[in-house]
Amino acid sequence: MRNQKLKRQLSTIALGGVATLIMAGCAGGNAAEPVADRDLGTPVAGVVPEGVFDGVTLTYAASGGIFQDGQRDAAWDPFAKISGSKFLQDAFDAGKLKAMVDSGNVTWDITNATQFDTARGCGTLYEEYDYSQVDISKVPEGTITDKCMVPNILYGLVVAYNTDAFGDNPPTSAADFFDTDKFPGKRTVSQSPYVDPQTVEFALAADGEDINNVQVADIATAFDKYRALGDNVIGWTSGAQAQQQLESGEAVMGLVWSGRGYGAAAAGAPVAPMWDEWMIMVDSTAIPKGVKDPQAAFAAVNFYLGAEQQARMTELTSYGPVNVDAEPKVDATLKTWLTTEHLKTGHAPNIDFWVENYDALSDEWASWVTGS
């Protein structure tokens, strides 16, 4: 039922409320430099004509680490080799993106962003997609949530728990994460610079609230629920720190990005995921407003979406593929952590609400991160 709800919710968002926001914002930004079109034919995901972008340099900006390295090895470098282009990597920074767009000097071609960021910045910070240049026929249903994105990865905010501590009686609900009598020990929760609405929704789900009917007042309530854990809650400011806390046993439970839970398990830590209740996350593959060669950027994204590229990306990063035909070869540990195996029990985010109330969320998140 929840998977059907996911599809209905995201499809409605894509056609409804977010579209209104997008249309309002599309007048802003700087026009791209004109670049002569090449004849690429009908796009097929994962395919690019040989040598078609000879001499072109493209840059991908993302959050680094094994995630960005895996995408480079699975898609961007192979694209460069076949197309004749050069593909550079950079670290994504929201302030830098805005400065580029405002100045009209955009040096990035593709970025990784949250689906909330692309919905909020569609037409002002990000280009609308020309889907006639990108084959989206194999993208998982419901994962295109605004006109300025295709999915980048499918992952989740999940409870990772210590099997030595709770192996015989594991947590099975969001409420269990907050039950320190039944499940004693420290929990770790995000206090990173990345504002995750799903962190709020998880706390509300633990109280039995309908996350499709979130109110602004619920945001503070959710953070108060984390604060009420007192000495039993610690924060993580990066995915690497969350993973280390799980590996060391400093935290017996963590609300973490699924790839970091997998990283701890792959390193040998006694850690397992709780799939009974988790929060679905989809990142966006976005193109900055004013990109100098839109056709090359669209072609690179089209290549990234191929089944072979997505399978390899999953094998290298542990994040779920965004091509339904992808067949990654994974070991038993990685298979346990793949979100694509558990979509029926995941909660999809209330995107419309968070786009509309992002400033309120940011204010409360800042208070939570700073301990105020």
Automatic annotation (TrEMBL):
<keyword id="KW-0732">Signal</keyword>
<protein>
    <submittedName>
        <fullName>Extracellular solute-binding protein</fullName>
    </submittedName>
</protein>
<dbReference type="Pfam" id="PF13416">
    <property type="entry name" value="SBP_bac_8"/>
</dbReference>
<keyword id="KW-0813">Transport</keyword>
<dbReference type="InterPro" id="IPR006059">
    <property type="entry name" value="SBP"/>
</dbReference>
<feature type="signal peptide">
    <location>
        <begin position="1"/>
        <end position="31"/>
    </location>
</feature>
<keyword id="KW-0574">Periplasm</keyword>
